[in-house]
Structure formats: C-alpha cells, structure tokens
Amino acid sequence: MTERETLLLREFKEKLDRMIGLHQKMKATCQILKEEKKRLDEQINLLTISNQDLSKKAEDLNFAKSLAGANEDTHEAKIKINRLVREIDKCISLLNK
User: Fold this and answer.
1) What contacts 68, CB < 8 A, 6 or more positions away?
2) Which residue, 5, 10, 22, 39, could crosslink 1 as a Cys pair with Cβ 3.0–4.6 Å?
3) Distance, CA of 33 to CA of 39 (rounded, Å)
4) What is the pLDDT of residues 18-34, one digit of tens each?
C-alpha cells in the first residue's frame, strides 16, 4: 500500500470510530428519553385519575350545597332528596321494562 492509501485508510478509521462513538451516545440519549417519556406518561395517568377524583368530589360538594341551600332548613333538603329518589325509582322501573 502506498503512503497516500495508508493515510486515507487511517482517516477513514478515525472517522468511523467517531461515527461509532456518536452512534453510541445517540443510543444512550434515546434510551434516556424513552425512560423519561415512560415516566411522564405514568405521571399523566396519575394526574388524570386525580383530576377525575377531584372533579367527582367537586360535583358531590356542589350537589350537597344545592341540597342544603343558603337559607333552607333540613326539611327542605329532605324534600329534595325524596324527589330525587322518586325520579331514580322511575328511571329504574323504566329500565326494567
């Protein structure tokens, strides 16, 4: 081999080694990003569940406040509850037909 060919071969090997090093770094970065994505997906799922729970609690609280009312006494609240129970019973009877 001539000196020029040897020099070209050495440069090729150096460039190939750099490319292999860059490829390994990119693989490691990709793996880290995949793990980060998985962690963030799990966090999103947990926050979604928490959000649903809080929405349900807020809905229940608003319902309870509407039953209690600002100036109504417990008798009025009982009347509202009885009315709701009758409506639910009607719905159940319609579903059973």
Assistant:
1) 77
2) 5
3) 10
4) 999 999 999 999 999 99
